């Protein structure tokens, strides 16, 4: 005995077994058929001390390579202020459960209310939940929600310019949920409005999901979309990087009914893909179909302002198979990251983040074109991310850039290379990347000749 | 003891029906509102929606429970009680005075399988 | 702290800022974009200084209660201690700063975490392979059901659209089944709180995709007929799904793979000690038998002969359920926990949790009504007070516990009883803590008789008291809307 997470001493165990009337710890499993009792040795290492754990994990982390990130594709290397980890690690936040007992959970409930408020401010919509795992699953929930809001329809249109992983996840959910999906063709790097109207015309459409900034980094012009979609009694769903909404036209302004996306760009560590948090917001008339946890304001028995989980009759623990979703999480701690990030950055800071990213991305774009090794693909406005064509062997280029400490020129499904610049990238870093690209270009071009 | 009203038809899923010509008003019984507690929201179909006997046409929600509304009749919704959108609590305070939907009946003989007040009271007593 | 009542928006003042950013020396500006692509007015985000932010959220943390604050006997939630070394490991820059699309050669350490955790969980559960894409328990259920459906449809068996779920199941089971397009068929419990095998038999035919089981179930009781249930369900061509929400008491003692389960999920935030974070993030890895490994969602991590790792697909994949590769940093924490326990302490985790639950049950069953009186596993359910002469409810008891500095148990679940009080003390609670809780529970039972009104108006000593949930749901105020001259909420009703 004597393990640091288990407080019971041998004496405690004896006394407790006596109270229970069992002769041994094994006796507490008298209801389990003997054939199911595991009597072997686990294929696990022996218990490690904290010192060993620290050493082993440092070693594993050391097998990763920390690269200067010049790629996005759904995960962005934005700066996360030091205040965030300091506050996030407070045990009162970190070790609490879902705030069912409102009296001892006002901290969690309040920041979730603030989070919901900030999401409505960014999206220009009325209501937000606090529940989604990531952007891709939030998109899947948005699609199922559109079906629930427009009764008796079975089709959803998906823009082919959405991030590939978002399309894959929505396809998976749709397949098992029984939704028939149609991909809207892209035209010159943007969702084809013509193709969307044609597919809307075929009828039975519950919703149309389009990105505001797409997989090529292009800012899409959604003029006329809401009219076309609403004309067919369908819902317009937009997918947006929420950071970009500090400057770009909001889902609300585009006439969207539901907005979704990934909050990773709002202060969450890259952390190899998770945990992130998705957001899901909607117009007020659809709030009863919004899945997941929602916090509302009320008063307590003394008339004091209080916050509670509300509209719970939508949820799985009450409605079971008729719930709006099976979702149970509230991604609470990730919502706290976002709330603290947006509080620190504020109205002006988030605008500046976009300005800096935009300025740096356009500088990199121009510098790469100037090398003569790349050509533009689309002549469309972009924010912080863009794709180019190159005649260089892409994998080899990327490998050499990795060796030089850069994560850049990510190959896309279409054979383009993708770049991204955030406010973290300095002019020196960008110049160094471009110089490295030039060297690679010479080597690879010579090798080809 | 939950209240009933003479002259209404009752279902086993605790809806009541009041017939007016070839139309029917549908609401929930006193027993149902009592079981649910404070009603906070009523999910109602739209005008011109079809309702089908024994299928759900909406739901009533309280803070910690929700119950589907099961239509005792087949027909078309000619009106929904808009007052309930803001004042769902009326279903608690006066369940028989507040209908939820008005339906144009396809087949009034469907009423034959419903209970009268006495039968419904006996049904609730057994539950 | 108790009187703090601000929202971040209410301490905002134009001109303040809470961060520093580099000077902008770039030529290009967002303002060069067409106006039709720009938002018309700035988002009304708060404008606050850095100390404002730190103090505000520190004050909010003071209104919370976590496992580090005190005993948290919340049934079915496994609120065990969250070790601090796990947090340190997960936040190492070598993990936290890695982009999910970096090439395999640059993420060997991350991939090793997947491989090692997969190996460890297979050893603990007896399953052949795990996917780490699912983000949470409910997400694991959904993923597992997709695997089951894929398995049937790949064999050209399209009739299996029903899933059997016990009436005692967590609400996520039927909800996950519905999201997966399956029709839920409920099987009843016996008066002894177990699945009614006689009620199950007539439900089994060639339209059944499988059964979802929690074992021990939500009453904390081991499903003793599991062998027969497994053979019946397999006999009709269905598969067995194990809801790992209640895995904790079996940790180190019983393996779902040995009991005949084909697919299962684990809640790393319950059984494997990763913090709940106020309700997320978690992780819900799904394990399957050898026969089902190729039906898992993509991607998966494989080790080559030379010890390097790569990302691979699955031949009959059920699809893709997460944007990247699940909640990576949660996986790091779970692996640190498993390695800290090691093979010797892993065997004690389940038994010690079971010991604690039975100790509390036996110490209170004379004053609280125990509907099923037998040995329990990690948790048990009381159905209100033994003396029902007052109208003190489960809710009242839960609220009164808050006054005494304990978190409340889960109440009104499972739905099998009217006054369910579901208590789960985990293995990380000392006998002294349990004795103090027992003492308070007995005191509340006495108060219910001597001063019921006081119990019915509890809590008396918390930042707020019984917020009006009816008001919140009838006139929903879900976002702060800035209004000149002070606070105002916007009702969306």
Q: What letter string, H or E per element, gives the SSE order of chain C?
A: HHHHEHEHEHEHEEEEEHEHEEHHHEE
- Say how many strands of chain B there are: 9
- Sum up the overall morphology of chain B in one term: globular
* Class from helix and strand fractions of chain C: alpha/beta
Any idea what the CATH architecture of chain B is? Answer: Beta Barrel
Determine the N-to-C terminus distance of chain B: 12 Å
CATH topology of chain B: OB fold (Dihydrolipoamide Acetyltransferase, E2P)
The averaged pLDDT of chain B comes out at 92
What structural class do the secondary elements of chain B suggest? alpha+beta
Largest interface: A-C, 207 and 200 residues
Helix and strand element order of chain B: EEEHEEEEEHHEH
Radius of gyration of chain C: 25 Å
User: What is the CATH architecture term of the domain at 85-341 in chain C?
Assistant: 3-Layer(aba) Sandwich
Number of helices of chain B: 4
Portion in strands of chain B:
25-35%
Low-pLDDT regions of chain B: none
Shape of chain C: globular
How far apart the termini of chain C lie comes to 32 Å
Beta-sheet strand percentage of chain C? Answer: 5-15%
Descriptive terms for the model:
heterotrimer, A: 449 residues, Aspartate Aminotransferase, domain 1, Aspartate Aminotransferase, domain 2, 2 domains, four-stranded antiparallel sheet, C: 493 residues, seven-stranded mixed sheet, 13 helices, 14 strands, globular
Structure, described:
The complex is a heterotrimer of chains A (449), B (127) and C (493). Chain A has helices at 10-20, 50-62, 83-88, 91-94, 106-123, 135-149, 164-177, 193-201, 225-231, 251-254, 316-319, 332-370, 394-403, 427-448, and strands at residues 68-69, 127-128, 155-159, 180-184, 186-187, 190-191, 205-211, 235-239, 258-262, 278-282, 295-299, 305-309, 374-376, 385-390, 406-407, 410-411, 417-420. In chain A, helix 9 (225-231) links the parallel strand 7 and strand 8 (235-239). In chain A, the strands form 5 sheets. In chain A, strands 2-10-9-8-7-3-4 form a 7-stranded mixed sheet, sandwiched between helices. In chain A, strands 13-14-17-16 form a 4-stranded antiparallel sheet, covered by helices on one side. Chain A is globular, with a radius of gyration of 26 Å. By secondary structure, chain A is an alpha/beta fold. Chain B has 127 residues and is an alpha+beta fold. Chain B has one domain: RNA polymerase II/Efflux pump adaptor protein, barrel-sandwich hybrid domain (OB fold (Dihydrolipoamide Acetyltransferase, E2P), Beta Barrel), CATH 2.40.50. In chain B, the strands form 2 sheets. Chain B has a 6-stranded antiparallel sheet. The radius of gyration of chain B is 13 Å and the shape is globular. Helix content of chain C is 32%, strand content 12%. Chain C contains 13 helices and 14 strands. In chain C, helix 6 (172-179) links the parallel strand 2 (162-166) and strand 3 (183-187). In chain C, helix 2 (84-90) runs antiparallel to helix 9 (328-364), helix 4 (108-125) runs parallel beside helix 9 (328-364) and helix 5 (137-154) packs across helix 6 (172-179). At the A-C interface, helix 1, helix 2, helix 3, helix 4 and helix 5 of A face helix 1, helix 2, helix 3, helix 4 and helix 5 of C.
């Amino acid at each position: 005995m004597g393990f640091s997470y288990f407080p019971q001493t041998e004496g405690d165990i004896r006394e407790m077994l006596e109270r229970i009337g069992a002769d041994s710890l094994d006796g507490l499993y008298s209801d389990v058929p003997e054939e199911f009792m595991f009597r072997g040795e686990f294929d696990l290492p022996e218990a490690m001390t904290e010192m060993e754990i620290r050493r082993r994990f440092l070693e594993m982390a050391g097998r990763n390579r920390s690269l200067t990130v010049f790629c996005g594709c759904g995960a962005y290397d934005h700066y996360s202020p030091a205040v965030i980890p300091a506050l996030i690690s407070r045990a009162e936040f970190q070790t609490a459960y879902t705030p069912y007992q409102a009296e001892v959970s006002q901290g969690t409930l309040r920041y979730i209310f603030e989070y919901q408020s900030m999401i409505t401010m960014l999206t220009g919509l009325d209501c937000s939940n606090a529940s989604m795992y990531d952007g891709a699953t939030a998109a899947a929930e948005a699609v199922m929600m559109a079906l629930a809001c427009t009764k008796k329809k079975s089709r959803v249109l998906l823009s082919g310019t959405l991030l590939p992983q978002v399309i894959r996840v929505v396809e998976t959910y749709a397949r098992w949920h029984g939704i028939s999906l149609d991909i809207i063709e892209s035209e010159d790097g943007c969702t084809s409005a013509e193709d969307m109207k044609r597919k809307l015309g075929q009828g039975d459409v519950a919703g149309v999901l389009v990105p505001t900034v797409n997989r090529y980094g292009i800012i899409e012009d959604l003029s006329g979309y809401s009219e076309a979609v609403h004309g067919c009694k369908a819902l317009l769903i937009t997918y947006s990087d929420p950071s970009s909404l500090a400057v770009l036209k909001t889902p609300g302004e585009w006439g969207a009914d539901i907005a979704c996306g990934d909050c990773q760009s709002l202060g969450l560590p890259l952390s190899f893909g998770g945990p992130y948090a998705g957001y899901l917001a909607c117009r007020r008339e659809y709030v009863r179909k919004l899945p997941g946890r929602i916090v509302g304001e009320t008063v307590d028995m003394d008339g004091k302002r209080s916050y509670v989980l509300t509209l719970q009759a939508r949820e799985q623990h009450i409605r079971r198979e008729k719930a709006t979703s099976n979702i149970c999480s509230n991604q609470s701690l990730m919502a706290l990251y976002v709330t603290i990030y947006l509080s620190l950055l504020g109205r002006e800071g988030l605008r500046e983040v976009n300005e800096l990213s935009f300025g740096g991305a356009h500088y990199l774009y121009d510098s790469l074109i100037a090398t003569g090794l790349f050509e533009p693909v689309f002549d469309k406005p972009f924010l912080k991310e863009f794709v180019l064509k190159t005649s260089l062997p892409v994998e080899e280029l990327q490998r050499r850039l990795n060796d030089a400490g850069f994560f850049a020129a990510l190959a896309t499904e279409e054979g383009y290379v993708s770049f991204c610049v955030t406010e973290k990238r300095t002019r020196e870093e960008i110049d160094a990347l471009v110089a490295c690209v030039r060297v690679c270009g010479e080597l690879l071009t010579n090798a080809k000749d | 003891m939950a209240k009933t009203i003479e002259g209404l038809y009752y279902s086993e899923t605790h809806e009541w029906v009041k017939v007016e010509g070839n139309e029917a008003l549908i609401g929930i019984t006193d027993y149902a509102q009592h079981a649910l507690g404070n009603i906070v929201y009523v999910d109602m179909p739209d005008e011109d929606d079809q309702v089908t006997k024994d299928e759900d046409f909406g739901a009533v929600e309280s803070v910690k429970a929700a119950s589907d509304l099961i239509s005792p009749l087949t027909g078309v919704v000619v009106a929904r009680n808009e007052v309930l959108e803001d004042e769902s609590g009326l279903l608690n305070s006066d369940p028989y005075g507040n209908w939820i939907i008005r339906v144009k009946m396809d087949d009034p003989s469907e009423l034959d399988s419903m209970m009268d007040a006495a039968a419904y009271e006996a049904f609730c007593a057994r539950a | 702290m108790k009187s703090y009542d601000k929202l971040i928006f209410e301490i905002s003042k134009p001109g303040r800022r809470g961060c520093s950013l580099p000077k902008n020396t770039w030529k290009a500006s967002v303002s060069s974009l067409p106006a039709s692509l720009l938002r018309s007015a700035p988002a009304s985000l708060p404008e606050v200084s850095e100390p404002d932010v730190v103090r505000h959220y520190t004050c909010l943390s003071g209104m919370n209660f976590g496992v580090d604050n005190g005993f948290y006997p919340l049934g079915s939630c496994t609120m065990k201690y969250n070790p601090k070394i796990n947090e340190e490991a997960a936040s190492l820059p070598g993990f936290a700063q890695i982009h999910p699309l970096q090439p395999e050669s640059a993420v060997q350490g991350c991939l090793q975490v997947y491989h090692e955790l997969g190996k460890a969980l297979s050893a603990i559960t007896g399953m052949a392979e795990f996917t780490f894409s699912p983000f949470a328990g409910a997400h694991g259920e959904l993923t597992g059901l997709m695997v089951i459906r894929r398995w049937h449809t790949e064999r050209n068996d399209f009739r299996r659209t029903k899933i059997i779920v016990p009436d005692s199941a967590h609400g996520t089971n039927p909800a996950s089944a519905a999201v997966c397009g399956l029709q839920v068929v409920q099987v009843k419990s016996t008066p002894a709180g177990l699945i009614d095998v006689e009620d199950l038999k007539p439900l089994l035919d060639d339209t059944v995709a499988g059964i979802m089981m929690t074992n021990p179930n939500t009453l904390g009781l081991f499903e003793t007929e599991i062998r027969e249930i497994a053979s019946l369900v397999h006999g009709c061509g269905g598969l067995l799904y194990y809801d790992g929400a209640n895995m904790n008491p079996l940790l180190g003692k019983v393996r779902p793979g040995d009991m005949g389960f084909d697919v299962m999920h684990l809640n790393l935030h319950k059984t494997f000690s990763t913090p709940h974070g106020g309700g997320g993030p978690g992780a819900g890895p799904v394990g399957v038998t050898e026969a089902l490994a190729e039906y898992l969602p993509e991607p998966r991590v494989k080790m080559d002969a030379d010890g390097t790792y790569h990302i691979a697909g699955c031949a009959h994949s059920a699809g893709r359920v997460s944007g990247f590769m699940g909640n990576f940093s949660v996986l790091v924490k779970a692996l640190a926990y498993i390695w800290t326990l090691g093979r010797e302490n892993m065997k004690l985790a389940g038994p010690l949790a079971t010991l604690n639950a039975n100790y509390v049950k036996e110490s209170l069953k004379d004053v609280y009504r125990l509907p099923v009186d037998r040995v329990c596993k990690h948790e048990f359910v009381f159905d209100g007070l033994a003396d029902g002469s007052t109208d003190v409810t489960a809710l009242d008891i839960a609220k009164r516990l808050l006054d005494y500095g304990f978190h409340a148990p889960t109440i009104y679940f499972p739905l099998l009883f009217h006054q369910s009080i579901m208590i789960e003390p985990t293995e990380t609670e000392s006998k002294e803590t349990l004795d103090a809780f027992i003492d308070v529970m007995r005191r509340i039972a006495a108060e219910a008789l001597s001063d019921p009104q006081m119990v019915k108006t509890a809590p008396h000593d918390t930042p707020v008291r019984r917020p009006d949930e009816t008001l919140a749901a009838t006139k929903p105020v879900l976002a702060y809307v800035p209004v000149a001259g002070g606070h105002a909420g916007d009702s969306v009703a």
